[in-house]
Structures are given as C-alpha cells and as structure tokens.
Design brief:
By secondary structure, this protein is α/β, with parallel strands linked by helices. Helix content is 35%, strand content 20%.
C-alpha cells in the first residue's frame, strides 16, 4: 500500500502529469493487482464501487455495475436469471452464482453502452463471475477481493494487461470532499444520504400500492441515479436497471433516452429476436450491434444493401414498427426514478409507453398537480421522496 500512484496520463494523452494520491499522506485504499489503470478507469471504478456498495447495503444482495465515462450503463443485484434472461445476456452455459447473475444483468441491460466498460463488484469476485468477465470487452474490474482462480482468469485477459483493482471495503472517506476546476477549489459535504424503502412512503397518487419487488426496483433506480451524471432518470425492473438516461440538459430527453434503452432491453426478449440465427463465427460485439439494428428501422437498410448475409445464417423477417409496438405493450410493472422533479406530465406520458407503473421522484415542481394527474390517468403509483440526487 502507498499514498500515491502515478498514471500514464489524465483524461487525454496530452494531460500530463497525472496521478491519484491521498492529500493527508495516508495509504491509498486501492491496490492494483494487475495492469495499469488510467485516470478515467479510476473515476469509473471509484464511482461504481460506491454504487455497488450502497446497493449491497440497501438490499442485502450482491451487486454489480457496468460503468462507462463516469456514469453507469447498467446496475443490478444478484437475483436468479430466467431462461430468457440467460439467453439475451449470452450466459446460457456455465455456473451461476448471485454475483455472476448481478454482473450478467448489469452488463446485459445495455450491451451497446457497456462495451469497453469498467466493472464494479460489491463482493469478492468468484470464478463464475470471472468467467463471464473474461469473454466480454472491458477495461477492468474493481472488487473487495478475488478468489485465487478468479484472479488468474482475469490476469489472462488483454495479453496479461487487464486492469484488476482491489479496494479496501472498510475504507471511509472524509465527510468533506474537494475538487478543482480552472484552478479554483470546490468544497462540499459528501452525499451520504441513505437511500432505502423509507423514502417511498409519501405516495401522492390515487394508486397507493407499491409491491415489494417494485420498491426494490425503485431503490435500485435511486441509488443508480446517485452516481449518474445529471440530469438523469433510470428505468428498473426485476432487480436491475434496464434503461439509464444520463447527462442530458432536458429531463424529457433523459426520459426518452432511458425509455428507448428500456424498450430495446424488452425487444431483445421478443420471439423474433430470440429466433435470430447468427453465423457461427460472428463476434459478440457484432452480434449485439446486429440486434440493435434489427429492432430499429435501420434493418431495412441492411436488407436493401444485402448485408444480412454477413451476419445471419437465414434472412430474418422485418420486425415492423407495428409488431414492435405490440410486443412493447406487454412490458408492465416497470419502475422509474428521477434525480430531480418532473416539470411536466410529458415525462409520464413517455414513461407509460415503456410500461412504467411505479415512480419515485423528489416532487416540488410548480406543476406537481399536472404530473400527479397524468399518473392517475394511467393508474400509476408515484411517491415524492423529497430529495434531489444531482451528481456532477
């Protein structure tokens, strides 16, 4: 252990020198077991570690997140996977453990965005999880520990250069945090707000019923938002985030972006997508990209250009807009969290299209009555948490 670690460069190659260090001279709470993590790697690792630690504390379940450019692409807890989920996450074979399930869910929610991610695990990385990580393209992983065999599996990635970081799970930072911008120092109290089901008690809609699994999903959504660049919203279902909209200047754009990702997650489960026959030698990333094209209007271009033969064994039928909409209408009981209040009912209208039934947001808009009215129109249950979760 040491109090300083030199990095290759900062956010960009021209930003030198670069390092992480402890201002008080104490030892760093992280140890690099393999590879040479960079500046952005550590930003993702340390933000993601906080997220999974809070998920574990709030739910009692192992947690994982897939981080990319200082926002999560996916986050989940270790609930069992259905046969369909195992298929759409490409984990049909191999051992299943709660931690491996959490990672499969976190990675699988938005596979396009998770490509080249940094993985954060709440528990000691086991062999089953390491085997899942080995076949995916990612920059590295952080965890409180690694089983010996799991560590050897991870060390074999990237010709032995894969980034593996161990963090001291007992480490607690100072209550005041600081950073610099343009030579000016900023200081604030850490966001130590505890997020749990107690925040969901103020239900302001006619429908007051929020079942336990939906409460779990709302907690997952809110904790995910706590470490997502604002503005942000998060759709969640079945113990995982299924659509995250980050860093948008307009809340409706967040809601649309995350809703589109949630829709893609559900469309992947449709019989038409599950029945796609890929060429045997197609790479995982190309397969994910092909599915993304297939569930959108771009597939018509693929057919017109004859490119389907380089992807599929058999020419797939077009997945029409009408067929997609009919399938999406089957998506129900989705939960939605927002890091700040919804200013207009248009966010609720968009959320309804993605099967949202349960919502947690701070409240406090001058148009709260309109937002509540829109929720009541669709029989949604919405609670006001009274807390904002901006993260920058």
């Amino acid at each position: 252990m040491k109090n300083e670690l030199a990095l290759k460069y900062g956010c960009n190659p021209n930003q030198k020198p670069s390092r992480i260090f402890m201002e008080d001279g104490s030892e760093l709470p992280v140890t690099v077991l393999n590879g040479k993590p960079g500046y952005i790697n550590f930003l993702d690792a340390l933000n993601g570690w906080q997220l999974v630690s809070e998920l574990k504390n709030a739910t009692g379940l192992p947690a994982a997140t897939s981080f990319k450019h200082v926002s999560p692409a996916g986050a989940a807890v270790g609930l069992p996977l259905t046969d369909v989920e195992r298929k759409i996450y490409w984990v049909e074979e191999g051992e299943s453990t709660p931690l491996a399930n959490a990672y499969a869910r976190a990675r699988g929610a938005d596979r396009m965005s998770s490509y080249g991610d940094f993985i954060c695990l709440s528990d000691v990385c086991d062999v089953a999880t390491a085997k899942l990580i080995k076949v995916e393209v990612s920059d590295g992983v952080i965890a409180p520990g690694f089983e010996p065999d799991a560590l050897e599996i991870l060390k074999s990635k990237k010709n032995g250069n894969y980034n593996v970081i161990q963090i001291d799970s007992s480490y607690r930072p100072e209550p005041i945090e600081r950073k610099q911008l343009f030579g000016i120092s900023f200081e604030q109290g850490r966001n130590e707000l505890k997020i749990d089901q107690d925040l969901l008690e103020n239900v302001v809609t006619v429908n007051k019923e929020i079942p336990d699994l939906a409460k779990l999903d709302l907690v997952i959504a809110l904790i995910t938002l706590k470490y997502t660049q604002s503005n942000s919203v998060c759709y969640a279902k079945g113990g995982q985030a299924i659509g995250i909209g980050a860093g948008q200047q307009s809340r409706i754009h967040c809601t649309r972006l995350a809703g589109n990702k949630a829709d893609n997650w559900f469309l992947r489960q449709s019989p038409k997508v599950l029945g796609l026959q890929f060429l045997n030698d197609i790479r995982r990333a190309d397969r994910d990209n092909a599915i993304d094209l297939y569930i959108g209007d771009e597939y018509l271009d693929v057919l017109a250009e004859g490119r389907w033969q380089s992807i599929f064994k058999v020419k797939p039928e077009v997945f029409t807009r009408e067929e997609r909409r009919a399938w999406l209408d089957k998506m129900t009981d989705v939960s939605l969290g927002s890091d700040a209040f919804f200013p207009f009912g248009d966010n609720i209208e968009r959320a309804h299209k993605s099967g949202v039934k349960y919502i947690a947001e701070p409240g406090g808009s001058i148009r709260d009555d309109h937002v509540i009215e829109t929720c009541n129109k669709y029989g949604m249950a919405m609670c006001f948490t009274g807390i904002r979760l901006f993260h920058h």
